[in-house]
Amino acid sequence: MTDIPAIEVTGLRRCYGDQVVLDAIDLHVPEGSVFSLLGPNGAGKTTMVRILATLIRADAGVARICGHDVAREPGRVRAVIGMTGQFSALDDYLTGEENLLLMAGLNHLSKSERRRRTGELLDRFGLAGAARKPAATYSGGMRRRLDLAMGLMGRPKVIFLDEPTTGLDPRSRRDMWQIVRELTGQGVTVLLTTQYLEEADQLADRIALLDHGRLVAEGTPEELKRLVPGGHVELRFADHRALAEAAAALEMETGEDLVLRVPGDSRTKTLRDLLGRLDAAAVEVEALSVHTPDLDDVFLAVTR
Hints:
Strand content: 15-25%
Order of helices and strands: EEEHEEHEHHHEHEHEEHEHEHEH
Helix content: 25-40%
Pfam families: ABC_tran, DrrA1-3_C
Radius of gyration: 24 Å
Number of helices: 11
Membrane topology: Peripheral membrane protein
Strand order of the largest sheet: 6-7-8-3-9-10
Low-confidence stretches: none
Shape: elongated
CATH architecture of the largest domain: 3-Layer(aba) Sandwich
Protein name: Daunorubicin resistance protein DrrA family ABC transporter ATP-binding protein
Subcellular location: Cell membrane
GO molecular function: ATP binding
C-alpha cells in the first residue's frame, strides 16, 4: 500500500456540444478499495470511466491513476488498469482458453508466461472445465467471469467494472461480488459503475452519486443513508400493558399492533438512550429492530 491514491480526479469536465456530461467532478479513491459510481442513465458514469481509461479526453480538469496523468501519460495509465464493460468483449468463435491467450499476447507476456497465466485465471474463475469450449456456448455468468479474467491478465492495480452484473441471475451476481471482494483483498482498486443499488451497498467502501453530470452526494453507504429522514427503531412488546407503559415512558401514542416505531438511527448512543428510558420505566421489550433508509431512498431523494 502507498500514500498515492489509486484514482484522483480534480475539476473534471466533459461536454458533447452544448450538453455538459461531467461538470467539475472531484474524486479521491484510496488503493485497495471499492468505489462505486451511481446515477440514472445519462448521469455521466460511463463517460467518467472512459476518461479514466484513456479512451476519451476530458475538456478540463486533471485525472490521475496511481499517480499517472491520464492525459499526459496514457501509456503508463494503461499499464496499470484493466477494464470490463457491461457488454462482453469476448470473441465467440474462440474458446475460453484462446480468448485468454489472445489477451496475454496483447499484454506482451512471454509464451511460457501466457500459458501459465491463462491456466491460473481459468482455475481462479472456475472455467477450467470449459476452457476448450467456444465462448458462444458459455452462460451469462461464465461469460462475465471470462471477461473479467481477461481484464486481469496484465495484473492491473486498478480495474474498472462498468455495470459488470447487468443481466446476470442472482447466483451469478453474487459470484461476481465474491470475486470483487477477493480482488480488493489482494490490493486491487475497483471502480464500479452499477444501476443495482444493492450491489453498491454490498461492495462499495464509498459511493458517489452523479446526476446530470454533477456530483450530488458522496460517502460511505451508511453516511449516505443518514442523509434521508425516515429511520426508526421498531420495538415489539408481548402484550398491550407493556406497550402502553412503553408508550407512556417514550411519550408516544400506540397503534393497533404491539409495536412502537420510534424515530432514530442505528448509532449505539441512540439505542442506549432508548433502552435506558425503557429500563427506567421497568418495561420489557420482546424484540428490537433498526430500520434505516436504503440506497433506493437516497437515490430518489438526491437525483432529479
